[in-house]
Specification:
Rossmann fold, Dihydrodipicolinate Reductase, domain 2, 6-stranded parallel β-sheet, globular, 10 helices, 8-stranded mixed β-sheet, single chain, alpha/beta
């Protein structure tokens, strides 16, 4: 096994503290060596609770640490590109939380930086790494549902806290950036192609201005994908894949639990009562650990990262088109 990749974390974001860092610490290729916060006390508290050796009181200090090989960037959305660029310029590989940017134009600025600095830069869409998604795609590719024609998804939670970054418009808050990006990404993954056009409806919170309810229809060469996401809805998530002869349903598609198995329902379509449903149980795994393993392997062995900048740009193009359609009230073409 090559020397472990020494990771630094920018910020003490909740997702980093609760999910990503503990998962990375279970990865044989990773060592979480440092964490930084603009409030040194926050970094010190996180380092103490998670057993991280070094805590910095600024992001600049962490980037100046020559012992750090790679950076995980879970900062608010509007800071993703600026600090990813700064980390790359400091010679660090960067795994940046989704969405990688606020729009396509901003995401594209990462391409010349990556090519000039020769570091790895990728988007942290952990779902791509989970075995349940690999199995679902295998079922589709091997014809278990006939020809895949329709994808339906829902992802929602209820959060009214105006101080939460997910509810701050200027920080890139709102349903589409935070959770709508998932059904878009995974619909592209399952169809294996890009949507030619999209149409959407967006309802914004009258005070916070963020999109609190967003629904979209995506037209692919193979069929349609439609989804609803919301930040003021019941806590829920589900993805269904309808083919000409069968159906697949992923029970917990995005927040797959790291402490118990996941389930995929495969329906042969014999009747509407579900008598043709079989359940596939996917063994327990942590998608964040797998993500860290694959990204670190790419650093060590020179391969491709799980989700490239190019793929992130294509996903962002769909997000941009969804927002444009809500304004124009017309079909819009993603422009990657």
């Amino acid at each position: 096994m090559p020397k472990k990749v020494r990771w630094g974390v920018l910020g003490a974001a909740s997702i980093a503290i609760r999910k990503v860092i503990p998962a990375m610490q279970n990865c044989g290729r990773c060592e979480v060596a440092a964490i930084a916060s603009r409030e040194r006390g926050k970094a010190q508290d996180a380092a103490r609770s998670l057993g991280i050796p070094t805590a910095y009181g600024s992001y600049e200090e962490l980037l100046a640490d020559r012992q750090i090989d790679a950076v995980y960037n879970p900062l608010p959305n509007h800071l993703h590109v600026p600090w990813t660029i700064r980390a790359a310029e400091a010679g660090k590989h960067v795994l940046c939380e989704k969405p990688i940017s606020m729009n396509v134009a901003e995401a594209k600025t990462l391409l010349p930086v990556r090519d000039r600095t020769r570091v790895k830069i990728g988007e942290a869409f952990m779902s791509f790494a989970h075995p349940q998604w690999l199995r679902a795609r295998e079922l589709v590719l091997t014809g278990r549902v006939g020809a895949l024609r329709s994808i339906m998804g829902a992802f929602s939670y209820f959060k009214l806290d105006t101080a939460n970054i997910r509810n701050i418009f200027e920080y890139g808050g709102g349903a589409l950036y935070d959770i709508g990006c998932y059904p878009i990404a995974m619909s592209r993954f399952m169809f294996g192609s890009e949507p030619s056009r999209v149409v959407s409806l967006v309802e914004r919170d009258p005070e916070m201005k963020i999109d609190r309810l967003t629904s979209a229809l995506l037209e692919f060469p193979e069929g349609h994908a439609l989804f609803t996401c919301g930040t003021q809805l019941v806590h829920y998530q589900r993805m269904q894949f309808l083919g000409t002869t069968g159906r697949i349903e992923i029970e917990i598609p995005f927040n797959a639990p790291p402490d118990r198995p996941c389930r995929i329902f495969v329906d042969d379509g014999r009747d509407i009562f579900g008598s043709g449903i079989s359940i596939e149980t996917i063994p327990t795994s942590d998608q964040y650990t797998i993500q860290a393993e694959l990204f670190s392997k790419a650093i060590q062995e020179g391969g491709e990262v799980p989700v490239s900048i190019e793929d992130a740009i294509r996903n962002m193009a769909v997000i941009d088109a969804v927002f444009r359609s809500a304004e124009s009230r017309r079909w819009e073409k993603p422009q990657a």
